[in-house]
Amino acid sequence: MNWISNYMRPRINSIFSRREIPENLWTKCDECGTMLFHREMSQNLNVCSNCGHHMNITPRARFSTLFDGGIFNEVAVPLPPADPLGFRDQKKYPDRMKAAQKATGEAEAMLVATGEMGRTPIVAAAQDFTFMAGSMGMYVGNAIIAAAEEAVKLNRPLILFSAAGGARMQEGILSLMQMPRTTVAVQMLKEAGLPYITVLTHPTTGGVTASYAMLGDVQIAEPGALICFAGPRVIEQTIREKLPEGFQRAEYLLDHGMLDRVTPRALMREELITITRMLLDLPPAVVGDLPPPTLEEMEPRTPEEPPKA
Questions:
Q1: How far apart are CA 186 and CA 203, in angstroms?
Q2: Long-range contacts formed by 229-238: CB under 8 A, 24+ apart
Q3: Residues of the chain with CATH 3.90.226.10
Q4: Separation CA 148–CA 159 (nearest Å)
Q5: Are 157 and 197 in contact (CB under 8 A)?
Q6: The pairing of beta strand 35-37 with beta strand 73-74
Q7: CATH fold for domain 56-285
Q8: 38-65 pLDDT, tens per residue?
């Protein structure tokens, strides 16, 4: 009787009362190893609350905090051929694409949208590093051209968030051709007199760095972002020398004149609003829904003078 009551009954109760616990409630910081609760991570924009390490964030999550009220309209991007080279390594290229689409819920590695940021109409494009490492293929080239054309048509500035491991090897030379194509797209903006702002996130490497990512009128980076053409390990193995501490990180590039600002993600929206309105020769953004003060209200008054109605 003791065996039944002391062992079997608690065992049966534990089986029937067991609850399924989701596996994605906690995320481990890549930098310091701290376990972060998913709600805390989301509220902190995927930035570690312990060490400040900036982890990957999807374009949709970024746009939901960038645009006013999280409201934006997607811009259609022309679809390239599905498998132009018939490429296959361990898997067929279409199979890799299907796996990436299933894992991310996105059609490709870049999202283009229009909306308002601090009541300032803009066009924005962002790369998704979780989609095949944000690799630059024909779709990404089409997306940047579509973003530039939309910006010129609507007479709006373009803000681009880069995050890529380089060109997409499965598209070979067609991927490398996106470098001149996107450079021409950026030139369209310059000829139209429209601001082009780039935000380089971790990592921005390869052909992306050698083209549209480094052509901004203003170039901002997130803290600790790796920004380079060839990675540090490749350079060390080539020159057979130890590289300086923090080489090719955002702070190092800022010190050496390659960047204009290094801005934490939590402050990025306000920074972009300020810079965009300065480049457009607009007055500072109004906080909240209050209208801007009139010139009459801004006139200085003497202490004795009553306020004007």
A1: 21
A2: 229/205, 230/205, 231/205
A3: 56-285
A4: 10
A5: yes
A6: unpaired
A7: 2-enoyl-CoA Hydratase; Chain A, domain 1 (3.90.226)
A8: 888 888 888 988 888 899 999 999 999 9
Distance CA 219, CA 200 (A): 7
pTM for the model: 0.84
Tokens matching residue 175: 């991927």
- Whether residue 306 is preceded by a cis peptide bond, meaning omega within 30 degrees of 0, is no
- Report the alpha-carbon angle 199-216-246, nearest 5: 50
Which residue in 217, 212, 202 sits closest to 276, CA to CA?
A: 217
- 64 and 101 in contact (C-beta within 8 Å)? no
Task: Yes or no: say if 135 and 168 are a contact pair by the CB < 8 Å rule.
Answer: yes
Helix (H, G, I), strand (E, B) or coil at 265: helix
- For tokens 């939309």, name the residue: 150
pLDDT in tens, 83-128: 999 998 889 999 999 999 999 999 999 999 999 999 999 999 999 9
Residue 74: CB atoms within 10 Å: 12
Give the span between the Cα atoms of 275 and 278, in whole angstroms: 5
Q: Which two tokens stand for residue 85?
A: 């080279």
DSSP-derived letter for residue 4 is I
